[in-house]
Amino acid sequence: MAHTQLSLKELQEWDATDSLARVREEFSLPEDTIYLDGNSLGALPNRVQQRVSEVTNVQWGQDLIRSWNTHAWVDLPQRVGQKIAPLLGASSAPDQVVCCDSISVNVFKLLAAAMTYHQNKNNDSQRIHIVSSQDNFPTDLYIAQGLQELLGNKRCQFVDVPEDELMNTLDDTTAVLMVTQVNFRTGRKLDIPALTQQAHKCGALILVDLAHSAGVLPLKLDEWKVDMAVGCTYKNLNGGPGAPAFLYVNQRLHSKLQQPIAGWFGHVAPFQMDPTYVADAGIKKFLAGTPSIISMAAADAALEIYDNIDMTIIRNKSIHLTTLFHKLMEQTGLSQTLQLISPTDATERGSQLSYAFEYAYELCQALIARNVIADFRAPNYIRFGLAPLYLRYQDVWHAVHHILDVIESQDYKDPQWAQRHAVT
Ligand SMILES: *Cc1c(COP(=O)(O)O)cnc(C)c1O
Questions:
Q1: Where does the pLDDT of residue 136 fall: very low under 50, low under 70, confident under 90, or very high at 90 and above?
Q2: Which is the closest atom of ligand 1 to the Cα of 105?
Q3: What is the pTM of this model?
Q4: CB of 91 closer than 6 angstroms to any ligand 1 atom
Q5: Residue 157 to residue 150: CA distance in whole angstroms
Q6: Are 212 and 189 a contacting pair, CB within 8 Å?
Q7: Chain-centre distance of CA 122, in angstroms?
Q8: Ordered DSSP codes for 223-255
Q9: Which among 37, 136, 137, 217 is the best mutation to test ligand 1's pocket, defined by most ligand atoms within 8 Å of the CB?
Q10: What is the mean pLDDT of residues 250-257?
Q11: Quick one: pLDDT band at residue 423, thresholds 50, 70, 90?
């Protein structure tokens, strides 16, 4: 279809017939900004503003500590987990998902639980390897390295290999395979059902990080027989900066996994103030301490947006958005200058596109100055997240034309864009 030139007018027509167009109204977005970073920090839903104001003014301000009961703060982690479950394909058994902590902490809890699972089960001293890909998200890699330090080389060794070698690395020494479904740099999507099957064939468990999947990809954790998963609510789920993460543990493992941070919220009866820890039997055992009520309530409200939307419609729009973006990059000749490092087949990637460019950092800063917000990932990638809930096809057209303008005018060479900030 290289000969058909897409016009802005045509894309405005696509927007007019987009069944998700009305969902954009749910968000409070600045007029003049094209936001291509919803995969890093989702936009602010209007209902979150209302909920946070109610939680602070009424629940906290007026009802004070009574709210733990009267507004059921005490089981908010489980209720938010129940709202996330259908987005993960995790509803075939109740209470397999809970909202808590950060991804980093949840990865630690679940990796440690996986290591002791094998030791308790078979006293299998051979099964000591945590296997992951070298370009997994740094925090996941750091947590595995830290666990190796903590447990010692005899009990735990971290093995990292290129993504394409994961399958062949698994064997009877693998305790747990830890993968992120959508690579944060390239947007490449791994085959989770196949990896799960292979891990199980080798007697290993699998832990899947859904940071760039939850809210944009249809997931079937139960059907794929995934053992454990983690993800965050502040990216595509729009829960707000630092909103708590979630974890999934398949019900068949609840009685078999021991959670290492044995805090009172994981106790079977926290308010009996029993001096001895007795873990809850269900998903609650994966909690540690007091939940962050304000930001968890924000995530809870944000999740309501998904109530009546089919994930396949979201995925279809996501595929159209990334396909359109790259087609416009080709149409304008920009794909000669910026090299696509994401898979060219839209079905093999998540809802983002990444391009390698020597001046990626400067380009990103020049775009931000024009209110086109993307992000930079070291060493030289610019990443565009395309959020299907609130991005319009016409926004993609404008974004690409802003990129064209910055490249053609050589604005990216202006020294002011080279100054590095703490957060890129
Ligand atoms: C964003 C992201 C994280 C973030 O972890 P936190 O502990 O919540 O800060 C972890 N893993 C992946 C793959 C991510 O993309």
A1: very high
A2: 7
A3: 0.97
A4: no
A5: 11
A6: no
A7: 33
A8: HHT--EEEEESSSTT---TT--EEEEE-GGGTT
A9: 137
A10: 97
A11: confident
